[in-house]
Write a structure and sequence with these properties.
The chain is of the alpha/beta class. It has nine helices and twelve strands. The strands form three sheets. It has a five-stranded mixed β-sheet with strand order 4-3-5-12-6, with helices on both faces. A five-stranded mixed β-sheet has the order 9-8-10-7-11, sandwiched between helices. Strands 1-2 form a two-stranded antiparallel sheet. Keywords: DNA-binding, Membrane, Transcription, Transcription regulation, Transmembrane, Transmembrane helix.
Amino acid sequence: MTVTLRQLQQLIVLAEERNFRRAANRLFMAQPALSVSIKKMEEQIGVTLLQRGARGAALTPAGEAMLQEARSAIFHAENACRLAKGVISGDVGSLRLGFVNSAIHELLPATLNTFRLQYPQIQFELSEDSTWEIIRRIEAHELDAGIVRGPIAQSANLKTWVIERDDLILAVPEHHRYADLESIELRDCESEEFVLFGSFRTPGLHSVALGLCHSAGFTPRISQEAIQVQTLVGLVASGMGIALVPAITRKHTRAHVRFIPLKDEGARQCLSLSLTARRDMLSATVQRLHEVMSALPSHEDAAGPAPGAQKSRQPSAAR
């Protein structure tokens, strides 16, 4: 037994018009063709749906029962089409988004607040993780996109948009001999022990910090490694060493730690927060997310300008 959506629509119009001629006109078809279609549907189902008479057509009890389901079927079919079109356009659907810890402070809230106002029918599935793990999950199709901390190694499989850039600054315990300095050259820290980003889970941050030390003329003595910025700051506060951290960190961490801008040229604008996704999975929803992030207002760098330096940053989202 096969009943088409077109036949269900014909039944609905007939129930409303109670007249084959008027119903045929509304359906843009000939009256005999409408009669044949309804008769065929009755034969397929095995019941009489319409009583035909001189005063028009009236639904039988079986027809009344089928009418309700017919309207429901048409509604769900049309809604399915709307949803499919919405997913393709990026206006409807879901987005699995990974993010690093430092995106929580400003970039992620600003993005989600704006995005949800513009696209209320898109649902987010959010998960916090390290840059390395987010990229792995994107490549494994477990995430649609991610906000990651860079620099990251270039991959032919990934499309990456830099949303904002940031400086590296020095974090020291509150009673450290450098705690009251307004700025410092990294070479003055050669004798210190460092708490550094881990080389395995945060290779980009590790290599930037290590490279900056090498440019300053020394190889740092590493006492501990960590993945999250807040963990590094906690270890600094505990006296485990000093650390190189994103400048945004000092806007959200104060207790027992002092943050000192670096005079080193290589410390400025050397970090980034980026949106990344698979090139072969660039859905319209991910494109919408990028548009929202790019349109968010810029904010001043968390570290402020380095002494004598001129500000240089591309338009970016709030951190």
